[in-house]
Every structure is written in C-alpha cells, then in structure tokens.
Amino acid sequence: MAYQELIKHFDKIRIYMHEFYIYGFKHRELLYHNSKRSYDNERRRLESYLKDYMSFHYKNSKIIFLSIDSRHIEHNPLYLAFQSKSFTAKDMTLHFMIFDILNSESVNLSLKDILAQIDTYLESFQTPLVFDESTLRKKINEYIELGLLQKKKIDNQNIYQRTKTFPISPYETALSFYSEMGILGIIGYYLLNHIPNQQIFCFKHYYIAYAIDSEIMCQLFDAMHHQKSILIKKYNPNSHLLHVIPLKIYISCQTGRSHLLAYSIHFKAIKSYRIDYISEIIYQEIHPLFNEYRQQLKQLENHIWSIQCYQKKELEHVSFIICIQPHETYIYQRLLREKRCGIITKIDETHYRFTADVYDTLEMIPWIRTFICRITQLNFSNRTIENEFKQDLNKMYELYQI
Hints:
Elements: H1 11-22, H2 36-50, E1 54-59, E2 61-66, H3 89-101, E3 109-110, H4 111-122, H5 133-146, E4 149-154, E5 157-162, H6 172-181, H7 185-192, H8 214-225, E6 228-234, E7 242-251, E8 258-264, E9 269-274, E10 278-286, H9 290-300, E11 316-323, H10 329-338, E12 343-346, E13 351-358, H11 365-369, E14 375-380, H12 383-399
Helix pairs in contact: 1-2, 3-4, 6-7
C-alpha cells in the first residue's frame, strides 16, 4: 500500500510513539506489531509531525527518541499527531458546504432545503460529486453529536442550525495553562487555535507523554461519568480482556505517568492499571454498585501513598525523625505539602516525626531519600525494605568514602 501521511485510526501511531520515541528503548529489529515496511511508514508519519524534536544514537543499531526542551516550545508537540486524521474528497466538500450554507445561528433550514442548496453549489463543477439525503443526514447527525450543529422541531419537521458560539479571548490565560497542564489538555489546545499569540506560560517540569493517551482517558472519564463498567484491552497480544469498574485516575507528579484505579470483577478487589498499556476501552452496562466501590476507594486512600492498595494485606508502618533548623521553615512547609496520608508531629524546636500507615512502604522510598541528610532516626515495620534502604546508604558511604 502506498504511503499516506494521514491516518484513519490513531492506535498505531500511539503504539509506535510510546515504544520507539517516548520510551526510546526499541529499534526496528524488536518490532512485533507489524512488518518492517509498516514500521517505516509509521516512522515517516511521525517524522512529519515531530521532525524538529527527534534525536538518535547508535547502540548496535539506530535508536530514535524525542528530545524536547520545554523552554523553547509553545505547546505539547504530541498534540500534532491528533491533527492527522484521514478524510476523503467527499468528506471535505460536504463539510465546507454544510457550514457555508448554515453560516450563522440565525439560519434555520430543513434537510431538504440544505440538500437543494448543495445541488446548487455542485452545478458549478464539470464533474460534480453526488450526495444523497441519507449521506447528508448521517453527516449532520455526526455534527450534532459533536455539538457543532443543533436540531429543533418546527411543525413536525426537523430544522437545523449552528450552535451558539461564545468568545474565547477572555479565557485565553486559563486555556493556555489548561492546554499544557490539564489531563485532557488537547481540548484547550484546539480552542487556542482560534486565538493568535497564545504563548503565555513556560514550564520547567513538563510531562508531555500523557497527551497521546488523551483518547483513552476521555473514554475512562465518560465511563465514570455514566457509572459504567468497561472491558480493558491491553497491547500485549497474550493478555485477556479485563472487566473492571473505573473509579479514579491517578497521575504521578514525579514521573507524569498515569494509572487507572478500578474495581476488578475477576479479583473482586481494587487494582491499578497503567493507562499507557491500555489499547482499547469497550463500554459495558451501568453498574449498580459504582458508588459503593467509589466509597470503598475513598476509604483505601487514607493509606495509599502512590497507587498500590492491597486490601488483604496488613498495613505497613513507616516512621522517621527529621532535623529542621529554625531558619529552614521552607523544609517544614515542604513536609506539610508532601506528607499525603502521613502525620507530622513536632518533637522539639529542631526535630519532627513523620508517621504513616501504608499498603506499600517501597513506594515511599524515593521520597524518603530526598531527606537523607536530615533523617536522624528511621523505623519501618517492613524490615526487609528498611534493611535494603540502609544497605543502599552504606554503599553510598563507601562510594564517597564517608
């Protein structure tokens, strides 16, 4: 098949972007989804969107990855991939004719009136396209579902008009921030396309990878809004469909990685699922126990540090004493800001005790490490994790000859 820059389905682009450009671990010899010719086609498509941000290095073979300096970009460059949907000549012709005919909110026309005006437009072409009433109705219903058009009934006849528009300029600052930091920032990005000179914010810590999971996230939010259970299909060809009730989405402020916390019908427990591993969402029926499981998750959150919530496992106690000098109030403020489910107790003017009961002590280790030079006492109920932590410290002391 001849190479085409535009695509009909986004899932292939999402797979290649994850595995070859964001993670940057794979090369074409490790390809298992399709043939090497397919890889070349997808690579060329991605280069057309992201050529200004691509780098590569050689390690037995050429490995390509994204290299982006957040100080020098206006918007998340991965949003460009969503503007690559394929279309036919008939799609585009019909699109522009419909919106040219319904050119304002005051224009109200029936399906037959619109079709008659389309026939008038087409008379100017030597070889005009032909549109029947069924095709036009499907296209208009599609635009009604998207919110671009609206339908009302007058004298037992369906009348169509444009939906009411509102000015976007007053919301420029909010949209500029939301488009880069919001979970579904792609929506803000689309709206900002109508405003010139929208670069307002620059971000130091900027996680862009979540953008290509926007379609999956949108479906998850839709399922949660309607309290539906879903079937999850993963990229792994050997995995089975997972029947779950989606409850909440967690996004890490340290890595930008996103997880779905959902009640598993099979395991009868709340589990976490990485969203970038999900390839497809299949809606099921409304689940009558949705609110009950959501309340159950709310109780579990009192002891969740990151995403792990082993309901059948005993809680693990974590305690450490940290030294903070009187002039270092910013350290104390940071401790208050980042304590999550922990409790801070003042011992004296320079010492504070942090305690928490969590499902998984290991999740806390990266955060605890940031206070290493200040910790004066450490105590984990999980002795294995505590010993490993102290062994790592001893190795560091040996390395730096302390």
